[in-house]
């Protein structure tokens, strides 16, 4: 799995590519936690190149969301394909993680 991290002003983009499952979720979580710990930016996760997300990928997102819970920083995901969106909906993660349709929507309201 490739994971690209891009800093753009007050926003950090995390762009994983491939399957997010038990084999790859640790690297995904580590990349996100590095951003949480080393930057003070809002975090946008572009899931547009993620073909599949298992519960391990959801747990990684939940761990980061918990770390940011008491901060003023946003965690938003966007670009979900149909299969990944269904995973979020069935698991109830659409009520836990801020899911947006696209990058413009994810940026809306951020400083």
Number of helices: 4
Termini gap: 30 Å
Which class in CATH terms?
Alpha Beta
CATH topology-level fold name = Transcription Regulator spoIIAA
The largest sheet, given as strand count, sense and whether it forms a barrel, is: 6 strands, mixed
Number of structural units classed as domains: 1
Task: Walk me through what this model shows.
Strands 1, 2, 3, 4, 5 and 6 form a six-stranded mixed sheet that branches. The chain is an alpha/beta fold and 111 residues long. The mean pLDDT is 94. The chain contains four helices and six strands. Helix 1 runs parallel beside helix 2. The longest helix is centred in the first third of the chain and has 14 residues, at 25-38.
Layout of helices and strands:
Blueprint: E1 2-8, E2 11-20, H1 25-38, E3 42-46, E4 49-53, H2 55-68, E5 75-78, H3 82-91, E6 98-100, H4 103-107
Parallel strand pairs: 2-3, 2-4, 3-5, 5-6
Antiparallel strand pairs: 1-2
